[in-house]
Amino acid sequence: MYLGSEQQSPRSQAQLLAQHVGVDAAPSINPDKVDQIYLDLFGDREYVRNRNPTSSIGFTPHMTPSPAFLHPVELRRRAALGPDAVARADHELTSATPAEIVAWACQRFGQRLVLTASFADTTLIDIATRVDPDIEVVFLDTGLHFAETLTTVRRAMERYRLNLTVLRPEPTAIDLWELGIEACCKVRKVAPLDRYLAGRADAWLGGLRRADHPSRADAPIVSIDRRGLVKINPLAAMTDVEHDAYVEAHDVLVNALHLDGYGSIGCWPCTEPSTEGRAGRWADSGKTECGLHR
Description:
The chain is of the alpha/beta class. It has helices at residues 13-20, 31-42, 45-51, 83-92, 98-109, 123-131, 147-160, 181-200, 240-250, and strands at residues 113-116, 136-140, 163-167, 203-205, 222-224, 230-232.
């Protein structure tokens, strides 16, 4: 684990977790800095208090708070498109550009379409908002993000004026870290997204690319996910060269951690610097996915 050397008192959830697993602190984890970012982003005074009761940050919310939690609902059982229609769409969109794929999705699903973003960069957001500036963007706030990731969210909100929805885990989710990374990902990422998509969407866009990792080499453009929803990967066929060219040509926002050697960016306890794609995620565990794309 790549860790900072400065000893800090455990005041935020992230620092409590650091103490629990016996480390000093994650890089960039400054409790007041992270709390201020949360307050600036979401104007959510109660959430900042819950995640860090001793925060010295003054509470002057100036943005509309996002819902902190969502009640479980029954998952939908039938896809908005049948298997034949999905297979046909996947075939017909094989040679389409990412923008064309997004346009097809917007036309087909309308307001029942959402886009999920990790804010490692804003490539998919940049493409999608050119097609539909009001497309709903969903961010999974695990409570364990790097400060640089939250800063990227803030910059994206300023640039794209995002229609942003923030999903969060239950307050007790931190206790599941001791049960293992699989359980932690499930309650902090998978469960909140499952609950939201089941009641809100027929289809969703993700930023998955085949070039990300060998395990993603056969990723389809259009498929039916385990929830019974239509999953669309507009960037699936985009190579690293094409991705880098788009980022440069459109001045796409990029998470600053990429400049520090992080090839892939997730939650700080499970992410190490690595220039080999996703190799720095859940290192030495055999785990390659958080479970969102199954």
